[in-house]
Amino acid sequence: MKNHFNLGKKNWFQLVKGKFVDLTISGVLEKTVVSEIYNQLSSGFEQVVKMIP
């Protein structure tokens, strides 16, 4: 993740969401945990976008 500082906010959030999905598929994280994190990231992203002029 630290290699992706040059990504915009939208692409960075998509990358993080994709990583959580990959971890869920591999069975490292439980589906309920990832769905809660995914929802929090999604709602946070919408709020951040609204704050940008």
Question: How much of the polypeptide forms β-strand, as a percent range?
Answer: under 5%
Total DSSP E strands: 0
**Sheet of most strands:** none
How many structural domains are formed by the residues?
Answer: 1
Task: Kindly report the average pLDDT value.
Answer: 69
Overall spatial form: flat
Instruction: Report the end-to-end length measured between terminal Cα atoms.
Output: 26 Å
What structural category do the secondary elements indicate?
mainly alpha
Summarize the structure.
The chain has 2 helices and no strands. It has 53 residues and is mainly alpha-helical. The protein has one domain.
Write the layout of secondary structure elements.
Elements: H1 9-26, H2 31-51
Description:
With 53 residues, the protein is mainly alpha-helical. It has one domain. The protein is 74% helix and 0% strand. It has two helices and no strands. The protein has helices at 9-26, 31-51. Helix 1 (9-26) packs antiparallel against helix 2 (31-51). The relative contact order is 0.15. The mean pLDDT is 69.
Key words describing this protein structure:
single chain, 53 residues, mainly alpha
